Amino acid sequence: MNKYKTTTSNVKEEPVPIETVEVTQLELDQLKTDLLAATDKIPYVVCLIEDPNNKSYFQWTGSDFVNLGSTGGGVLLWEPQALNLMSSARASISLFGAPNGMLLTFPGNANGIARYNHSLIGTNGLPYDGSNIQLELIWQIFTAAGVGDDVLWQLDYKFLQNGDDNFGPIVNTITIDFDVSLRTARQQYTDLFAAISGPVGATHIQFNLSRIASGPGADTYPGDSDLYNIRLKKA
Fold first, then answer.
1. What are phi and psi of 212, to 5 degrees?
2. 117 and 212 housed in the same domain
3. 94 and 124 share one domain
């Protein structure tokens, strides 16, 4: 019976082996069963060696082993897919085809909102591993700001898994409030929300990006805020 050497490491922390054991095929099958039953399905790297001249590396993805090839091909880590700025439902904001590309304009007299529903399957097909992620904004103020003027961005979000209610309320909220009095009009800036995270294996994230320009606690900058791009990035 073939013997396999398995090396496991928690790739969410550091891809450093934490255990190496020899197992039979039956034990390898049981390892897969055990991993499927685990409550914390952080991906594991599993190195399978059939003999010194026939080496294959496999990675546990949360549902199965993926063959990384004879040299391992590098440890696969979850990375978020690109966001499409325009793939949103919009309220009180305008979509403009500027000479150098599309942008979303959030006015200075209403609470503009862009709503997104974004997959958390990674760029390499791996499931979400619970990593901290941040929403990055690439934006500008359109006209010069006055002394003390600020722009208040708000992010409402929730992570969803199979079986969750997609129409339930979005209850998590974080904000970033920028003093724009020293910023140059029509000059691009890049800013980040604080890091957030969801449960391992979450399938997608629903979020609303708003500028709070009206009502209690509103910002004070009276001009438009133009959003050129957004992206999710690992913190």
1. -95, 95
2. yes
3. yes
Instruction: Among 15-29, 57-71, 93-107, 166-180, name the most confident range.
Output: 166-180
Residue 126 is assigned to a structural domain of this protein? yes
The number of distinct structural domains making up the chain is 2
- Of 115, 85, 122, 133, the C-alpha closest to 209 is 115
State pLDDT tens for residues 181-230: 999 999 999 999 999 999 888 999 999 999 999 999 999 999 999 999 99
3-state secondary structure of 115: strand
How confident is the model at residue 9, as a pLDDT? 53
Distance CA 235, CA 220 (A): 30
The residue count for the chain? 235
* Burial call 180-217: b when 16+ CB within 10 Å, e when fewer: beebeeeeeeeeebeebebebbbbbbbbbbbbbbeeee
The SS3 call for residue 26 is: helix
Does a structural domain hold residue 83?
no
Burial class of 174 by CB neighbour count within 10 A (0 to 12, 13 to 18, 19+): middle
pTM strictly above 0.85: no
* Residue type, position 139, single letter: W
Same domain (yes/no): 105, 151: yes
Domain that holds residue 63: 3-69
Domain of 188: which CATH number? Answer: 2.60.120.260
